[in-house]
Amino acid sequence: LILGDGANLLVADAGVGNLVVSLAQGEFTRTDFAAGQLADGRVGVFVGAGAKLPQVITSAHRAGLTGLELLGGIPASMGGALVMNAGGAFGELGTFVHAVHALTRGGRAVTIARDEITFSYRRTDLGPRAAGGLIVTGVTLALTRAPSPEAVERARAKLIEVMGYKKDSQPMAAASAGCAFKNPTLDRAVAGVGEAGQRVSAGLLIDRAGCKGLTLGCASVSTRHANFITADPSHPRPCAADVIALMRQARQRVQDASGVTLEPEVVIWGERL
Ligand SMILES: Cc1cc2nc3c(=O)[nH]c(=O)nc-3n(C[C@H](O)[C@H](O)[C@H](O)COP(=O)(O)OP(=O)(O)OC[C@H]3O[C@@H](n4cnc5c(N)ncnc54)[C@H](O)[C@@H]3O)c2cc1C
Fold first, then answer.
1. Beta-carbon neighbour count of residue 209 at 10 Å?
2. Is position 62 annotated as part of the catalytic site?
3. pLDDT for 131 beyond 90
4. Pocket test for ligand 1, best of 11, 74, 176, 265 (most atoms within 8 A of CB)
């Protein structure tokens, strides 16, 4: 199993029996802002899979390169952000990917061009490419060279705006694995929520099912954003089982209240939802 920053992971209280590999050091955290000019005029930037996305955003600005500020406030390693196609209201990582560098489970190094990868909502099709999925070792991003120092300042201001939006609407300081469920696409109209074919907020559905503030052991449905399940770190016993049980409860309540089946966004190791 490959561990990124763990920001989207829920690990069973008993742990996992697999070998867990982290790429959070050495060559895997290297960033090269001089990777070269791309055919579309943007700048190719190599980022190792273990580099942290928030730091890459600020380093890119220091190097006069913009674009990634739309992904402000997302805790992630570059590998995890890529695999999950991390993003939100302002944009998603897939837009900035030029190529992906990876290892097959057989140990063969491969480079995959952007147009060979399907980026969709909170996923890519990289996982099933090789038995057990590819291990992403780095990404070549396509960023924009800011034409002036003022343009970099505008990008910095945008980063602050994006982070502020997240801070106002999500429990950023609490212990969580981000959004518990993916925002579903409705297969039929749900009164007060949306029309058939529309992607709607899982948080809204969970809220309307009366789950906001629901607590089970050390886990609670956040009162700030119902799609975040937060864990009380001071609780005396391990918490993953409570989080999973609360996710099951929320999913069932949404099913009963609106007929919508929520799919988990968090990746769960060692347990099934
Ligand atoms: C407070 C908070 C806010 C968040 N807000 C957002 C948001 O706005 N938008 C959003 O998209 N997400 C958000 N998340 C979720 C999380 O930040 C993203 O899913 C992020 O992309 C996870 O990256 P990671 O490195 O932590 O991956 P991990 O959680 O460590 O792993 C996630 C998955 O990716 C796989 N993986 C990781 N690295 C590699 C690699 N190198 N090769 C192959 N597979 C790999 C893992 O095996 C696992 O299956 C939030 C999380 C928190 C806690």
1. 23
2. no
3. no
4. 74
